[in-house]
Amino acid sequence: MNRRPPRSSLYARLLFTGALLALLAYWGWLLYRLVGPHLKQLMPDLGSLVRYLTGLLFLIACIGLLGYLNYRLAFRRWMHQDQTRLYYWSWLCLLAYLLFEGLQFRTDQEPDFVDENILVTLLLIGIVILYGFIADSLQTRRQQQLLIQQKTEAELTALKAQINPHFLFNSLNTIYNEAQQSENQPVADLIEQLASILRFTLQESTRPLISIEQEFQFLEKYLALQRARLPKLDSLQVRSQLDWDGHPAQVAPLLLIPFVENMFQYGVSLNHPTTLELNVLVENQRLVMRAVNTVGTITGAKGGSGTGIRNARQRLALLYPNRHELHIEQTSQLFSITLRIDL
Q1: Which residue among 32, 41, 107, 136 is least crowded, i.e. fewest CB within 10 A of its CB?
Q2: Strand, helix or coil for residue 286
Q3: Is 294 helix (H, G, I), strand (E, B) or coil?
């Protein structure tokens, strides 16, 4: 949304514009009184002055364009790396040769102008070099300011993000205490498991890797919460088995949960026989997970977007390139996911 400038700022701009115009008009009037009577005699000299100033402006523009192109095409490409820095200085030698030959052509290759052309060439090359370093310094300063601004915004965002979890955990603790005082231990246990899941999601998930034991503990709490949520029906079977050979192994946090969530979100039905089965085995630094759920009219009724599995695919491609296999199959009755990762 565009914001209109305040009225005081508009008045200040009008005041400055009026003062500047008045000052220029006053100076112009004084110059006219001084030069006006002799203007006809000075006209030829004024023409020479205009041509001189035009040529000078054109020369400055050409030098500026040369410095800009040198900075954009050569300095930034070669000067920032030790391996290519000599390429930049070699290019400047070539540029100096071309400028010198251009000046020699302008003076018809006269030997008397060699020293002058060398001096002008060195001056131009010096300006080009100075332009490159000044432009690079300004660019570096702008990048540093941008990084500082982004860091400040990230810190503010992080501070804001810490407020909501703090409030949420305090609320859960309050509900947990109320459940215990009411001697409703099943509800208190569910609240405790939910708090553990949230704490793991907010804290442990920020680490690049966690132990298999921590990932299994998280999955077990999630499965316990889901079992408690579902009604006790003979037609609804939830089976899970998490095995680990005991050797130290690490995995990216929350890597498996999208597949398990997908199993419960699209595989549960209270009207049709339903089976959910999760098996995870970690052995010899290799993880194998298989998640299977029944389908039929269930999946179509909920119409999931597949965002969780799509994000999990992207994470696997980034974290375990050429070290994982993911197979997803769907028949008229079953939806199955098989994942193998070399940890």
Answers
A1: 41
A2: strand
A3: strand
